[in-house]
Amino acid sequence: MLTSASITLGAAMTAADQVDYVSGRTRLFGIVGHPIEQVRSPEMITAELVVRGHDAVLVPMHVLPDDFDSCLPQIMRLRNLGGLVFTIPFKARACSLADALLPQAHAVGAINALARGNDGRWRGEIFDGLGCVEAFRRRGIGFRDRRVMLVGAGGAGTAIAVALGFEKPASLTIFDVNEERARLAAAKVTLGNPQVSAHAGPPRIRDVDILLNASPAGMLDDARLPFPMEAIPRETIVFDAVVKPERTPLLALAERCGCTAVAGREMMRGQIARMVDFFYAD
Question: Domain spanning 129-264: which CATH class is it, in words?
Answer without folding.
Answer: alpha beta
